[in-house]
Amino acid sequence: MIKQSQTLRALLPGDALTGGGTDVGNKAALSEIDASCRVPVLFFFLSGLAWLLAGTVLALVASIKLHTPGFLASWEWLTFSNVRTAHLNTVIYGFASQISVGVTIWLMCRLCRIPLVAPGLITVANLFYNIGVTVGVGGILIGDSTAIEWLEMPRYATPILFISYALIAVWTIVTFRLRAERHLYVSQWYLLAAVLWFPWLYGTAQVMLLIEPVRGVVQASVNWWFAHNVLGLWFTPIGLASIYYFIPKVIGRPIHSYYLSVLGFWSLALFYNWNGMHHLVGGPLPSWMITVSIVASVMMLIPVITVAINHHFTMLGHFGKLKYSPTLRFMVFGAVSYTLASLQGVASALRSVSEVTHFTHHTIAHAHLGMYAFFTMVMFGAMYYILPRITQREWPSNGLISLHFWGVALGIALYVVPMSIMGFIQGTMLNDAAVRFLDVVQFTLPWLKLRTLAGLLLAAGHGAFVINVGWLLVRMFEPYRKPVVRILTGEAETVAAAKLP
Amino acid sequence: MSVIAFILLGSVVLLPAAALMALRWAASSGQFRCPDKAALLPFDEVEPVGLETDRILGGNRR
Q1: Which of A176, A279, A313, A366 could, after both became Cys, cross-link A256 (CB 3.0–4.6 A)?
Q2: Distance (Å) from the C-alpha of residue A497 to the closest C-alpha of chain B?
Q3: Where are the domains of chain B?
């Protein structure tokens, strides 16, 4: 009989391999939950990854245009403003949000201990979602952008997305109501809050900015209330929910302090949604509004520090496991980046710092530290854990896993660190009346070329991941007893001691 | 303007009310009572505490 790895044993239904045992029923239940999630979660993951590739290409084009403006200059639909905006919308709404929903579905089913309910609802939501993003990004590229940051998709696309968000929220509530486990884990608090907060944020911003638009400074304040809260009340809770689930699960140890995790959730809920106005330091708003926002931004130290302490002490003594688990690598990278991004955000909210860094590449670096180094890395980690379980196949290539991790880890470090430094110097130069504006622009050029290089590394990592996922899907159509990869064969035992490079 | 007034009023009244109701429900249903039990919720008999579940090259180890 072909030797199967122990990982696969845990994934396979019931006694498919073992021939029976005391925990067969539990195994079957776990397997049934994973199998029930297969189709909808795969839909969200695969469409999210397709948008990731599109977003990566758009990002590279935008990045090259910053230092080589003549690049693709004869294509009017590929002007910098179109491409940059399309990049943001594809990665935020097309990639990150769809992966978030996929992860949310799986986590809710696992933690509620029930198989997926109402699969039709979630499939319709996915269909609406992708139609909405396609129409929205297409609209941006043909010049229909609303020019409102993070809400650039034209009015004819956004109702489609709103329907999808609402369906996802309904599904989550239904799953929560039908749960078999009455006690809630902290990840469920975060997930439930996120799926309810986002339709409210999105709907409110749509009405106040596009359907019945407010005017003047209120428009700017609503805009930044929305844009900042997309990060803090949609992506951050889902990212933290994932970290709180996957780190304990991978290392086999409960979180250090459950009390701290609950404190972190409620303090995030209390303070985060006041933060957006710190983007308008120096703007024509009543100064008390900005001051309140700065105070709330500093208060974010409470949830950030509680989360950082909890993650660090949970991992203490288990850092050696980073050698073996891709999920853990991505999760820990994301958790550390969350702390760094939050501390950088708190500092950037202060008037004295914002006066220098605002309108510079420092802000772009900060956004990528939060959205990529934290959130995207966590989502990659989650997919490394979920995909083998729902497909019941192991990852085909460890080399591609390593290429993915090192490509994106080095890429994002090469992006964020130089851009943060350059942005600070750029701000200082901009504030100096003796420095010509053209000199500031020329100063940024070598740094912008470095940014393109970082983008290429990220693109290589994304390519490796997508190939590995495609390969995994091909393996789905082969019988699991077939020795499709070497760790499932006898050879696996000889390489078992090897570590990921 | 009426739609905006409705949204603002709804946001100001309903959201804090919903948060308070969620807190009240959590307290009354014992969600904060047994933190040690809650911390164990990701685990079960198949994947208990002490079991590593993502050793790509090594398989599951106790």
Answers
A1: A313
A2: 7
A3: 2-32
Q: Is A119 exposed, middle or buried (0-12, 13-18, 19+ CB in 10 A)?
A: middle
Return the number of CB contacts < 8 Å for A and B: 134
Phi, psi of B61 (to 5 degrees): -130, 140
User: What's the CA gap between A187 and A261, in Å, rounded?
Assistant: 9
**Domain range annotation of chain A:** 26-183, 196-314, 318-327+352-365+372-501
CB-CB: which of B4, B19, B54 is closest to A385? Answer: B54
Neighbour-count burial of A310, counting CB atoms closer than 10 A to its CB (0-12 exposed, 13-18 middle, 19+ buried): buried
Blockwise average pLDDT, block size 10, chain A, 501 residues = 38 37 62 91 97 98 96 93 96 97 97 93 94 97 94 94 93 94 94 93 90 89 94 96 97 95 94 90 91 96 96 95 94 97 96 95 96 98 95 92 97 98 97 96 97 98 98 85 40 41 52
* ipTM for the complex shown: 0.86
Residue type, A22: T
A-chain residues within 8 Å CB-CB of B23? Answer: 266
Distance, CA of B21 to CA of A495 (rounded, Å)? 54
Q: According to the model, what pLDDT value does residue A480 have? A: 60
- Asked if the Cβ–Cβ distance from B49 to A185 is below 8 Å, we say no
Are the beta carbons of B44 and A248 separated by less than 8 Å?
no
